[in-house]
Amino acid sequence: DAGVIQSPRHEVTEMGQEVTLRCKPISGHNSLFWYRQTMMRGLELLIYFNNNVPIDDSGMPEDRFSAKMPNASFSTLKIQPSEPRDSAVYFCASSPGTSGTWELFFGEGSRLTVL
Amino acid sequence: GENVEQHPSTLSVQEGDSAVIKCTYSDSASNYFPWYKQELGKGPQLIIDIRSNVGEKKDQRIAVTLNKTAKHFSLHITETQPEDSAVYFCAARETSYDKVIFGPGTSLSVIP
User: Fold this and answer.
1) What CA–CA distance (Å, rounded) separates B4 from B16?
2) Residue of B nearest to A31 (CA)
3) Which residue has the higher pLDDT, B44 or B96?
4) Which residues of B touch A104 (CB under 8 A)?
5) What are phi and psi of A85, to 5 degrees?
6) What are the pLDDT digits (tens) for B5-34?
């Protein structure tokens, strides 16, 4: 099993540029989560999907952030325009999503630096 | 919504000693409490979990206890080894929206 795959692993961009982070969840998993990790705020849940449908996006910081899940095997997190305070490690995680199986399987993260 | 607090933020122990990390949660309806270990440059990985109908669970050198009345849960690592050095996160699952909320993390260093 390949696990959760995220790309890119590292991204350096300039303020104002658009950033797109990508995630391929584990096949068969029904739930997908995007987390942001910073020293100051720890692991913050941004948004999560169940069966490709966004269930809760209350953690998305502002309108500059958007996330999509067009099918069961792909999700994107987009920041437009990016700002230096968006610098963080962004994790995607998937979960079986069935009752009683709530373990999150994390990808290795995308480290974003906005200059 | 759920809020999870975690102490201490850093912990340093001698190899072979025990390490204890404590967490509290705010939502009495939360029913699932996992612990994740994050090694440098990697994503968090589940090491043990406990559900609300259980008071204690053990897996080799790792144990977790849950006090639902006090809304406390703790991670105990015995006979620590250098490879236990990592950041540990406790978490709680909100039942209403199936969300897992993480504590701020504990950086554990095991000194050989």
Assistant:
1) 29
2) B98
3) B44
4) 34, 36, 44, 46, 100
5) -70, -5
6) 999 999 999 999 999 999 999 998 898 999
The answer to whether the peptide bond before residue A70 is cis (omega within 30 degrees of 0) is no
The answer to whether the CB of B64 falls within 8 A of the CB of B37 is no
Q: Is the dihedral of CA B29, B106, A42, B59 positive or negative?
A: negative
Q: Which of A48, A52, A40 is nearest to B94 (CA)?
A: A48
Contact B105 A55 (CB under 8 A): no
CA dist A41 and B79 (Å) reads 31
Cβ atoms of A14 and A84 closer than 8 Å: no
Cα separation, A68 vs A45, whole angstroms: 15
Whole-Å CA distances, B74 to A8, B48, B112: 35, 11, 24
The number of angstroms, rounded, from the C-alpha of B85 to the middle of its chain's C-alpha atoms is: 14
- What backbone torsions phi and psi does residue B82 show, to the nearest 5 degrees? -55, -35
Phi, psi of B83 (to 5 degrees): -70, -5
Residue A78 pLDDT exceeds 80: yes
Count CA within 13 A, CB hemisphere, residue B33.
36
Per the CB < 8 Å rule, is A91 touching B102?
no
Closest CA to A44 of B5, B101, B70, B97: B101
